[in-house]
Amino acid sequence: MKEAFLCEKLENKLVRCFLCAHQCRIQDSKFGNCGVRQNLGGILYSYVYGKVKASAIDPIEKKPLYHFFPGSKSFSIATIGCNFHCAFCQNWEISQNSAHDSDLQGEDFSSEKVVKAALGSGCKSISYTYTEPTVFFEYAFDTAKLAKENGLYNNFVTNGFMTKDALAMIKPYLDAANVDLKFFRDESYRKICSGSLKPVLDSIQGMRDLGIWVEVTTLVIPQVNDSEEELRETAEFIAGLDKNIPWHVSRFHPDYKFNSYPATPESTLRKAQEIGYKAGLKFVYAGNVSGWGNDTYCPDCKKILVKREGFSVLENNITRGRCLFCNTVIPGVF
Asked: The dihedral of CA 121, 125, 130, 136: what is its sign?
């Protein structure tokens, strides 16, 4: 176990955790909402420090991050646990496990070993992904710091339900993040994810203000968040922060507790992409589809900058952060 960051001791051995926006007040011997942080005698501990449940060498496009070293590889790690309980989670087998599931906690994988493995496999970055990196923050922080010292970049794939304190702490080592903006309705967050909307919006803005490269993903679910009104409000919020923020609208497929819902028609994603462009966004991508929606175009000359097929980059016409054809600066980390 690792003593937790970002918490305070209260009277009667209570502990308040302010790592994520739940800001749990945890009684002695009890766990926080994430299920992996426990108060023992008035001290909060993380059960998942260095306990990797999933790891892989992924294309960065899988995160998805399209304006962050396109075509590069990223060493991806995750522990169990999440501070959301999304009924449609596509990684629920590990995200919805807790420290109570002692046989599922993962294998020892030190920060040093992660960095060595990333370097040895030719990865450009380390991704903290699959589950929610906020709940393994101590491990992610130490790993990201060591990675940065060794010339690697770091990115979070996150639900964004973190505090400003957590963002400020990780900022020196976090280069990019893809934030899931699941809904633009607070009631949907509360009913389906056991979360809330405003902290996610605050995190997206906070990351941008701190200079962390941010991309946003919305999983478009039929009958839940696929109305033109909600998609427009989502796009307008992102465009209001920065029209250069890429928006990924991804196709839902039935999973976990949402098995009765249909897969998203591709026509809905085309509509969402059109709504995004009408809102002023310069880069809107379609996820979980084949043959369209994944290429990056220059916002000025309209030529293809990055041509993709699935998670593979077939062509890259961005040179030193500029369009090869017209020399326009392309937003991102290249």
From this structure: positive
